[in-house]
Amino acid sequence: MKIYTRTGDEGKTGVIGGRVDKDDIRVEAYGTIDELNAWIGEAITRMEPSLYPELLVHLTEIQHQLFDAGSDLAQVGKNRNYKVTADLITRLEEWIDRYDAECPPLRRFILPGGSSLSAAFHLCRVVTRRAERLVVTLSREQETNEEVRRYLNRLSDFFFVVARFANVRANVADVEYRR
């Protein structure tokens, strides 16, 4: 199989059920999810496996789930078979609670930073928020899997908490907002 197909040379791309412009909001939404997946891969490269064995497993699961979310968003027309379901959101909530239990109570707003890994997770958080905004726009215009929007909303919370968790594990203080 060749990497290049030339089918996109005219500014169109294939989605499940047809072809759309490459700058279609649907492509922007799942393309941003793909970007997020790359940022997660970057964050993983910063992790010391012995400090974060469980988190590495969770992040890898999330990367697979993001592929599913992108697939869900790439579907147009009828006969949709969605992969992102409410149980994935429930699992994220369980993980959030687990990692948050190891963090000190929040007393102030937190700025991105602290350890290098924490900063990487904050990048994941803001890209997740952008993806979520694009999915909101898409869902106003076209039918989508609403669970993807909910999943992204919870995923940004997950990245906020694991950014703090990374600082705890690195013995680095969160960067608190002060006026």
Brief write-up:
It contains five helices and four strands.
What labels describe this entry?
179 residues, mainly alpha, two-stranded antiparallel ribbon, 5 helices, elongated
Folded structure, characterized:
- The protein is built from five helices and four strands; from the N terminus they run E-E-H-H-H-E-H-H-E.
- It is mostly helical and 179 residues long.
- The chain has one domain (26-74, 84-176): Cobalamin adenosyltransferase-like (Hypothetical Protein Ta1238, Chain: A).
- The chain has a two-stranded antiparallel sheet. It has a two-stranded antiparallel sheet with strand order 3-4.
- The protein starts with 11 loop residues before the first strand and ends with a strand.
Termini distance? 57 Å
Give the tally of structural domains. Answer: 1
- Helix amount, in percent? 55-70%
Structural class: mainly alpha
What is the total tally of β strands? 4
Largest sheet: 2 strands, antiparallel
- The CATH architecture category equals Up-down Bundle
The whole-number mean of residue pLDDT values reads 92
Q: How much is the radius of gyration in Å?
A: 18 Å
